[in-house]
Amino acid sequence: MAYEQNKLSRPCGSWPSPISAELVTRAAPALNFVSADDDSLYWVESRPWDGGRNVIMRKTSNDDAYDLLANPFSHQSRVHEYGGCAYAVHRDQLYFVNAQDQRIYALTMPMLNSNGCTQTPRPLTPEGTWRFADLIVDPARRRLIAVGERTREGNEPENMLVAISLQTGMDGAPNGDPVKVLIDGADFFAYPRLSPDGRSLCWIQWHHPQMPWDGTELWQAKLGNGGMPEESLRVAGGSAEAIMQPQWSPNGDLFYVSDRSNWWNIYRLDSDQSQQKTQPVLAMSAEFAGPLWQLGACYFDFIDAQTIGCLWTEAGIWQAATIDIASGQLTNFISPYNSFHSACCWRGQLICIAANAYSGQRLIALQPLPEPRATDSETLQTVYSPRCDEDHQTDMVKTSLTPADLSSPQSLLFKSADGTLVQGFYYPPTNAVYTVPENESAPLILICHGGPTSASGTAYNLKIQYWTSRGFGVFDLNYRGSSGFGRDFRQALQQRWGLADVEDTGYAVRHLAAQGLIDPLRCIIRGSSAGGYTVLAALTFSDTFKAGASLYGIGDLEILATDTHKFESRYLNNLVGPYPEARERYRMRSPMHHADRLDCPVIFFQGLQDRVVPPNQAQLMADALRSKGIRVEHVTFPEEGHGFRQAANIIVVLETELAFYAEVFDLKSAT
């Protein structure tokens, strides 16, 4: 690697870095689930420094943003375990699911900014077995409609669409229970949405063993005098088509996203449903949606009856645009951002959350303007930047962190085992002071995202910069099975999990080494959840990597197939094969059953409240490797679940992992 003039040459992995683990927790808040009501915008902000609490933020056109939820209240749903959007607003009322007890609460909001909301939320649903997500308000009938999940001792939860009375709270509902079942009979439900006139309800549903990115159905029903659905009709979708985000236009037409062409494109439902002539609003080899891991995800909305504001991705890069419905013309917004999510249209603007490699998530407004094309300064307005961004600026001054310390992702394509083109983002080692010695190539940390149907992107990520600023190269891999590259690529992992993804990790390393970007003898593989399984499988069934880190990962596929939550309980049927019929295949691909083949150091991190991946997975793998005399560390967090939310624990993970690599590779003075 070429020497960078005016920088000090220092061995990789030992560079002093201005990016501390503590800074990572304070500079990486997550924003999500934007919505609008009348004069106000709302969204959810996650705060690792506040015990991992999720607050609901509000901003009116004339006021600064402020949070509506006082401690200990926190927005979080556990429907499907992954939850999603679980709040709704109508006029001065906020309705939200509280993390601790999963009850829906109502909060009367102040009319003006009072530096926070001092009202105390009141519960609308009883204590007990209900969970809720994807809330919408049905004002004409004074109720909420939501996805409901009722837990049952010793059985899978029941999922359904429910109505929650707002008449007089719990005491005014029949038998003291305000929850009424509207639709049941499917294994899963999502996206209940009311037509503008309130007379029709649409939703999507699906059945085991499908996941929502495999096959879903779009249904529509009239609402009778009592508010119950009547004449329910499946209008799109099936086992070989994944429907996402149904959305009513202002004039009452039903739009939705479908991957029937291989790509998630936006469609309008033909008014003559019997003719099955539905065509995409715009046919593109690009994706206008992502996988439904969390309920309520939104990728498009209506600026007006003729114009859609939307987000779309191609080759891992997201863009924001408008679509003229009549002509199908796509017009991209000019902006410095390449990562977008959570679309919402408000007052003729597209509101969304945006980021790039150098800028953390912020809420922006994009204003369509007539030709000639405007510059980004004319079309883009920052609506809100999190407070932590301000803290980050202070830290930059204190620690001399500059843009020169931040690595810029490079999108790379390479051919994998079967000739398929696979993509990932390479982050070269970058530091304002230090550079790679002329006679050294950088050690590599290859990251495997979770899912495995998720995807890696280009958003500002100090967890990655934590490594690159110390002299590591990082490759964030979109292995086969990742979303954003079409249905065929997504399904390339079916029956081949533990094979195709592992092949892709090996071919990625060979490609990076051939380009002279990394040292192939100092390669680390790191991943969480499903990515943790790819980590352990790659370490067990290949010799590409010399160390690994598994964060709440999977070591025994059999245990996962028989001991996980309902949402993913049949997921492995498609990824590996039906269980127990394919039991031998499960054992063949489980690192736990082939621990004798794993002979390099591994570090495990696990939350003991994890309901997705049983905590005994990490314990069994660690014990098996320790019995062989292999260098192992096993770090547990009693209060964490699937994913680490508390700042103190995130700090422990990063600092312990760095110390582990420093010892394994004899990296002196790593800080």
Write the layout of secondary structure elements.
Blueprint: E1 8-9, H1 21-26, E2 30-37, E3 40-47, E4 53-60, E5 66-67, E6 87-90, E7 93-97, E8 104-108, E9 122-123, E10 130-138, E11 143-152, E12 155-165, E13 179-183, E14 188-194, E15 200-206, E16 217-223, E17 229-237, E18 243-248, E19 254-258, E20 265-268, E21 300-304, E22 307-314, E23 317-324, E24 330-332, E25 339-346, E26 349-355, E27 362-366, H2 376-379, E28 380-384, H3 387-399, E29 410-415, E30 421-427, E31 434-435, E32 444-448, H4 462-468, E33 473-478, H5 487-490, H6 500-514, E34 523-528, H7 530-541, E35 547-551, H8 557-562, H9 571-575, H10 583-588, E36 602-607, H11 616-627, E37 632-637, H12 647-664
Parallel strand pairs: 1-31, 32-33, 32-34, 34-35, 35-36, 36-37
Antiparallel strand pairs: 2-3, 3-4, 4-5, 6-7, 7-8, 8-9, 10-11, 11-12, 12-13, 14-15, 15-16, 16-17, 18-19, 19-20, 21-22, 22-23, 23-24, 25-26, 26-27, 27-28, 29-30, 30-33
Helix pairs in contact: 6-7
Q: Number of DSSP strands?
A: 37
Computed over alpha carbons, the radius of gyration is 25 Å
Shape: globular
Q: List low-pLDDT spans.
A: 170-174, 389-399
Roughly what fraction of the amino acids lie in strands?
A: 25-35%
Question: What fold name goes in the CATH topology slot of the domain at 401-664?
Answer: Rossmann fold
Strand order of the largest sheet: 29-30-33-32-34-35-36-37
Give me the CATH superfamily of the domain at 401-664. Alpha/Beta hydrolase fold, catalytic domain
The oligomeric status of these chains comes to single chain
The overall average pLDDT, rounded, is 91
Binned, the helix content reads 10-25%
- State the helix count: 12
Computed structural class? alpha+beta
